[in-house]
Design brief:
alpha/beta, two-stranded antiparallel ribbon, 5 helices, 18% strand, extended
């Protein structure tokens, strides 16, 4: 009886072992890894478009001017060149309620203590004016040539906003700002037709004040 019971058990285990051996010999096919889809690439036509602005920037960049040499030493800019650069950078804006005056007279009063510039039309009506005190110069600085230059520039800019183009310069007084004011008017861009000295000279008229005792 024991032998009969053991036979069916052995017969049941044999098919299971055979199936395992068959599985080991013929393993299940492995799944191929799914290739990741690459991100959408931009078309090749787009790449030159990005390079085009860079090429344009390179083309627009102006070539540097060669420096002038004087005896092997680079030329230094003069005061007139620097003044022209400063004046060229300033934009003249048209004033509200402009008077549209194209011709006028620049009256320069250069005393030993101050410089006053007033610009009028041909009839004598004042268009603009400026003084050393108005330009924030105080004390002994009011009588300097630099103060006269700034005064003339400010007065001319205000007049150019009203359309002034051609002027006649009238200089009055023996102060230090005579020449500086005239040069500033010429450098700012106004066309100067004539320069007149209207300093009054007495023919032995009034008695002058007594001299200081220092």
């Amino acid at each position: 009886m024991a032998e009969e019971n053991s036979k069916p058990e052995n017969e049941e285990t044999k098919p299971a072992a055979a199936a395992e051996a068959a599985v080991e010999k013929n393993p299940a096919p492995k799944k191929a890894p799914v290739a990741e889809t690459p991100a959408a690439e931009k078309p090749a036509a787009d790449t030159p478009a990005t390079e085009a602005p860079a090429a344009e920037e390179g083309a627009e960049a102006p070539a540097e001017k060669p420096t002038e040499l004087i005896g092997g030493v680079p030329k230094q800019p003069t005061a007139e060149d620097l003044l022209k650069e400063e004046l060229g950078a300033v934009k003249i804006r048209k004033a509200k309620g402009s008077k549209n005056v194209t011709t006028g007279v620049v009256n320069v009063l250069a005393s030993f203590n101050n410089t006053i510039v007033s610009i009028t039309d041909t009839r004598g009506n004042v268009i603009s004016w400026a003084s050393a005190g108005k330009c924030n110069f105080r004390g002994s600085r009011k009588s300097t040539a630099y103060a006269a230059q700034i005064v003339a520039q400010n007065a001319c800019r205000a007049a150019m906003a009203h359309g002034l183009k051609d002027v006649v310069i009238k200089v009055n007084g023996p102060g230090l700002g005579r020449d500086s004011a005239v040069r500033a008017v010429q450098a700012i861009g106004l066309e100067v037709s004539s320069i007149i000295d209207v300093t009054p000279v007495p023919h032995n008229g009034c008695r002058p004040p007594k001299r200081r005792r220092v």
